[in-house]
Hints:
Blueprint: H1 10-16, E1 18-21, E2 44-47, H2 53-73, H3 86-101, E3 102-106, H4 120-129, H5 131-141
Antiparallel strand pairs: 1-2, 2-3
Helix pairs in contact: 2-3, 3-4, 3-5, 4-5
Amino acid sequence: MTNFMDQFDTVANSEQGAKLHFKVPTGDLAFIDADKETPKKPVTVTMLGASSDKHKKYSIAALRDYRIKSKKSHGKKKDEDISDDFFEETSASQVSRLMAVVTGWENMFDESGKALDCTPDNIKFLFGKYQELRVQAINFLDSDVNFIKS
Length: 150
């Protein structure tokens, strides 16, 4: 019999990681071989959860950077509350988060159809270029339910 309380241990479950099967814009699960009668090559990413040590270390470093930038700009009048680079900065921040937690993937390819190894540079490329993949991955990461074992 398994311990009932284990399902609530999001820290241990975050360290084990979880796999996200991406969806295409229609809402169907993404398969590289979707043209086959029975697709067998899912497009997935495996990542540690937001309660994992790697994510916590990323978050602490990001907060330190934010504090440093905030101190440097303290007292300077800003014309607007939101910078003109808001969306680019948000995207870059999300990509950095994913670089901290992605541990693997299946069936990821570049524009020329070459298989991509799961490396920091390729994580940055993939999630920087493909907003829909980034949004799905961030939403998955932000939901602890994806890292609860039942």
